[in-house]
Design brief:
By secondary structure, this protein is of the alpha+beta class. Helices cover 39% and strands 16% of the residues.
Amino acid sequence: MVPMNTTTHPAPNRPSSRAVADILRGAHTAIRYRGWARTEPATGRGPVCAMTAIGMGVVGWLYDPRSILGPEDERLYEAAITHLGAHLGLEPADPDAFTAWHDDPGRTVDDVLNAFQDTARTLEGYRPDRVFTPTARDMTGVHRGVALICYGEDGSYLAIGHIPAELMVAASTACNLDLAGEPLAGGTRKPDELEREVQHTWAVHWHDARGEHWWDLDPERRTPGAVPATILPGD
């Protein structure tokens, strides 16, 4: 594992649960897109360890993390590690405990992703009785008969049900034209290229205490209430 370099400073305020959850969601996305590794290559490209992924969650997962985190960044970074440690039953005040958990020879990428997701859920107020099956009104829009959610900075699409790749691309293209006025990827990629990226998985939809709609990918279908979902990743 490659730990982030940090500066030392006093932390006057505890970061909000929502802020820490957002960081862990960003870390989860970083590993899903780039892959997971205990030891990272010197180039800084390719798979990342959990500590780097958390740093990416702090500064924005589309960008490589800063080599030195500023005072506010560090405060958020340390809070994320503390919450992860508490969720895993480790010594939360000892960041090395999380490093040891991460570097265990038996550790898997699913262990890491589940730790990020489950800790974020807890911080966001997830409860089993808040899980629901979404309808068209819970989605971004319905195109070609497919209910879609557009999400993320990269403009990914999620549909309820296991949708054929050709239909998923057609529906997502129609939705993107409606939202952004242009086809997917600006029309630079052919439909068959996009179809090869379509993924079938499972998702859990739930409401928090304020009634806001949340959803989590759950490829292992380990959460009661998970429903089939189709994803077309964005650029």
